[in-house]
Amino acid sequence: MVEGLFSALDTRKIDYISLGTIKLHKLLIEAISERFPENSILLDELVPTDDGKFRYLKFKRVDAYRKMISWIKRLDASLNIKLSMESREVNDLVFNDFNV
Question: Which of 33, 35, 62, 74 has the fewest other C-beta atoms within 10 Å?
Fold first, then answer.
């Protein structure tokens, strides 16, 4: 996916890339479960957050961000990457402990 995007984009025109993971409202989780019982998006453990929504566990989000950043940086190391709607702790785990 990353390679496909980068083959179609001029990365010199990108100011920054913002990465985020899914956050689901409880009602949306219920609707997905009812309408799409075989959907794998709900198979992983989702935990409640301060705003009442559910998201993947912190260590899984950190792992996903690190993988995505490594794929992006392999194609263009100069790109500025930020995390969307994440805590300072998650930002630190992703960026301070990972050479990006």
Answer: 35
Q: Which residues of the chain have pLDDT under 70?
A: 97-100
pLDDT computed for residue 97 by the predictor: 58
Q: What pLDDT score was predicted for residue 27?
A: 93
Q: Is residue 67 part of a domain?
A: yes
How many structural domains are present in the chain?
A: 1
The C-alpha atoms of residue 53 and residue 62 are separated, in whole angstroms, by 18
- Cα 81 from chain centroid (whole Å): 12
Reading the block at residue 96, the tokens are 């301070």
Residue 100 belongs to a domain = no
Distance between CA atoms of residues 43 and 76, nearest Å? 33
Q: How far apart are CA 43 and CA 49, in angstroms?
A: 18
